[in-house]
């Protein structure tokens, strides 16, 4: 398949970004998009020289080679299942479903059908995170004694979105939980979480927090701290720090980092801060859809770094545990098996 025909369900903020990347991905000869808002699908398709379909059923009936899902979370399970039934590989934006309990039936369905499904955790394709994983695996940092992961947005999304997002840990920190497992090769066995609301009171009224912290204990005893905030006026701040017995490595520390030094005369970083996740991870998103195209095509490439359905559910388990600890105020253990409902 030299000229793939790929389908994209959902062309909202992140879906429209995927559409732009897909039409410029080598080997993708045709793109067809669909959205609950048919007018928006038609508009995006027209701007990119793509095709559009009135709904997902019509989209899959076009004889596509693969499906990328970028709709709201509530539609993910049914669209993953539709792609699997159509016999095409699926790349679905995170998460699989709103929580682990509703993700497990999807995992069972895909495994029973022998489907090929990957979940969008684009940080696996970011150059910094890839280098951190390589350096740790090579033993260059020694043994890890502490890990720090940060994801802070410059400004919160609409409160209407937060009301259905599942909470800050599920919506935002799940990316950190995924790369925490991916870079260290370890599992999280316990989470203790705390949160606060000092911004828009409406965020609290819909059951979310605007700032949160989770202390994670890994299965080898290493401690990891994951922090997140909706209010980081300095810019979009995403970093990972691996502190080892032989050295420390930091992802996201460059001339566009959203921070400044308090030391006299220090001018680093000198560039403008990143403002959005789409800008910060533009190269990673491009590499991710290119890897998906390789997976669909069956050619060699970095497709094995695409997040599997099982890995996505594992990261979601940590996010669920963090949300539960945030609610209860008590540590939550993860080393007990999760029952399939």
Structure described in brief:
With 341 residues, this protein is α/β, with parallel strands linked by helices. It is built from 12 helices and 14 strands.
Characterize the structure shown:
- By secondary structure, the protein is of the alpha/beta class.
- The protein has 2 domains: 4-120, NAD(P)-binding Rossmann-like Domain (Rossmann fold, 3-Layer(aba) Sandwich); 124-280 and 315-333, Dihydrodipicolinate Reductase, domain 2 (2-Layer Sandwich).
- It contains 12 helices and 14 strands.
- The chain has helices at 13-23, 38-48, 56-60, 76-85, 100-113, 127-137, 159-162, 168-184, 201-205, 277-280, 282-297, 309-328, and strands at 4-9, 28-34, 51-52, 66-69, 90-93, 117-120, 144-152, 188-196, 211-218, 223-229, 237-244, 248-251, 307-308, 332-333.
- The strands form 2 sheets. The chain has a 7-stranded mixed β-sheet, sandwiched between helices. The protein has a 7-stranded mixed β-sheet with strand order 12-11-7-10-9-8-14.
- Strand 5, helix 5 (100-113) and strand 6 (117-120) form a beta-alpha-beta unit.
- The chain is globular and about 60 Å long.
- The model is unreliable at 337-341 (pLDDT under 50).
CATH architecture identity of the largest domain: 2-Layer Sandwich
CATH overall fold name of the largest domain: Dihydrodipicolinate Reductase, domain 2
Q: Give the amount of beta strand, in percent.
A: 15-25%
What does the overall shape look like? Answer: globular
Main sheet record: 7 strands, mixed
Terminal Cα span: 40 Å
Put simply, the count of helices is 12
Order of helices and strands: EHEHEHEHEHEHEHHEHEEEEHHEHE
Number of domains: 2
Query: How many β-strand stretches?
Result: 14
Q: What structural class is derived from the secondary structure elements?
A: alpha/beta
State the strand order across the main sheet.
3-2-1-4-5-6-13
Helix percent reads 25-40%
CATH superfamily of the largest domain: Dihydrodipicolinate Reductase, domain 2
User: Mean of residue pLDDT?
Assistant: 94
Rg computed from alpha carbons, rounded to a whole number of angstroms = 20 Å
